[in-house]
TrEMBL record:
The gene is phnK_1. This is Phosphonates transport ATP-binding protein. Residues 22-63 form the ABC transporter domain. Its EC number is 3.6.3.30. GO terms for molecular function: ATP binding; ATP hydrolysis activity. The keyword Nucleotide-binding applies. GO terms for biological process: organic phosphonate catabolic process.
Amino acid sequence: MNQPLLSVNNLTHLYAPGKGFSDVSFDLWPGEVLGIVGESGSGKTTLLKSISARLTPQQGKFTTRTVRCMQ
């Protein structure tokens, strides 16, 4: 299967001028590790809440691929 585990396209959520994130895009492929870094108030937590569906982004979209984990 040749598709990313997570694909984020043009995601935006601003809750105050300069607070949040704007136009974020990336793909996360199997075997990759992604780090989210930035200054306080730069939107790290807001981005992760948007990707986990705890917050609705104002613009853009993301898609996930279902992954089966072995127990």
